[in-house]
Design a protein that fits this description.
15% strand, binds pyridoxal-5'-phosphate, 394 residues, 14 helices, alpha/beta, 12 strands, Aspartate Aminotransferase, domain 2, Aspartate Aminotransferase, domain 1, seven-stranded mixed beta sheet
Length: 394
């Protein structure tokens, strides 16, 4: 007689254990089984707590969301499939046809594209203005302005937005202030303490920190805002996979240590670069020669950021020689990895701009941005000394 079949496909309870795992278990299950239709009603109506379907929510996303909310000092947060999913959940989840959105003029490239192309297509008008200039921001407001989106430190020019004044302006006008805190992180700035209603992150960068996961996060104190963004994200499928959340939580455990180390090295590298022959300028917010130095000191809580921007003389040929010589540093347009990365805005993030438009914001063919990682500081500086020397020998 044939043996009974299909014995594998039935619920198999987990082995009992009165001790608990110290690491958040990975829960890749897409679906969650409930006892009865009544039990499911109770779940959907919020009388009991339970998961149903992973796009709607799962334990790994919720644990990660809470951890980042704790760091940012906000009531609640939501993890999304990417930083851009977080930007989208805010802008499209909260704004509708007829609304106006004011953005910083040096936002992340895809955020700029969303503002310029996609929101107008849906009837949401947008304007960009300089967030370091509060008068310019105020002048760009309209009666129908619903939301202001800014980053604290701009890429790659590292200008520092006047978040405190923007918080006051937004409050006075009843406009939502949204801060993308990806570069600065809650280690340096907690935007909600400065008047922001919503804070968001590309968790892909410093928070997860190992360039092996793409995720975003958005948080707010007001439950009704979270509810609207969450519903939009769940409906449109902006929500993340459990494995990505689990990996990001692992990375997040060392976030404070990584940030402190990287920003201290960044400060040292910025000073070293400023003294190297052939370097026209070294840009770092905590340096006294930075245009927003005083604001950075007041805003960044004694921290800096892990980004340094510098310019070498000699144009594109010098830039090619520099990138080729700096072989120990990944020439790659990302940031926040354990290893330093070098990017060249004129050929990557800012390639769509004309040379004149780039020059207007201080980007030339000799401009590089460094995301400083965890290398031994002296070795990293030595690598740049060699690379800058090679660039000047062209
Ligand atoms: C990378 C980045 C984003 C987008 O994040 P993804 O995870 O790549 O989608 C948004 N804002 C800033 C400031 C970023 O650096």
């Amino acid at each position: 007689m044939a043996k009974p079949r299909a014995t594998l496909i039935r619920p198999e309870p987990l082995p009992e254990s009165i001790s608990r795992p110290v690491v958040t278990p990975l829960s890749p299950s897409v679906v969650y089984a409930s006892e009865t239709p009544d039990a499911l009603d109770a779940q959907y109506e919020g009388r009991t707590q339970g998961y149903t379907y992973a796009r709607e929510g799962h334990p790994n996303a919720d644990v990660l969301a809470r951890r980042i909310a704790t760091l940012e000092g906000v009531e609640a947060g939501l993890v999304l499939g990417s930083g851009m999913a977080a930007v989208t959940a805010v802008l499209m989840g909260l704004c509708g046809s007829g609304d106006h959105v004011l953005g910083g003029d040096q936002l992340y490239g895809r955020s700029l594209r969303l503002m310029a192309e996609d929101l107008p297509r849906l009837g949401i008008e947008t304007t960009l203005a300089d967030p370091t200039d509060i008068a310019a921001m105020e002048a760009a407001l309209r009666p129908e302005t619903k939301l202001i989106l800014v980053e604290v430190v701009s890429n790659p020019t590292l200008r520092v937005a006047d978040i405190q004044a923007l918080g006051q302006l937004a409050k006075a006008r009843g406009i939502l202030l949204v801060v993308d805190n990806t570069f600065t992180t809650p280690r340096a700035v907690k935007p909600v303490d400065l008047g922001a209603d919503i804070v968001l992150h590309s968790v892909t960068k410093l928070m997860a920190g190992h360039s092996d996961v793409t995720l975003g996060w958005v948080g707010a104190n007001e439950a009704s805002l979270m509810e609207r963004m969450t519903t939009f994200a769940v409906t449109t499928g902006l929500t993340p996979s459990p494995f990505d959340c689990w990996l990001a939580e692992r990375g997040l455990m060392t976030f404070d240590l990584r940030f402190d180390r990287a920003q201290a090295t960044a400060a040292a590298l910025a000073d070293a670069l400023a003294d190297m022959p052939g370097v026209i300028r070294s840009v770092y917010p905590m340096r006294a020669d930075h245009p927003d130095h005083n604001r950075a000191v007041a805003l960044l809580d004694g921290q800096g950021c892990n980004m340094v921007t510098f310019e070498v003389s000699g144009g594109r040929p010098a830039a090619n020689a520099l990138a080729a010589e700096a072989s120990g540093i990944a020439f790659a347009p990302t940031l926040g990895d354990v290893g330093s990365t070098l990017s060249h805005p004129a050929s990557s993030s800012h390639r769509a701009l004309t040379p004149e438009a780039r020059s207007a914001i201080g980007i030339s063919e000799g401009t590089f941005r460094v995301s400083v990682g965890l290398e031994e500081p002296k070795a990293l500086i030595a690598e740049f000394e060699r690379a800058v020397r090679a660039s000047q020998a062209v």
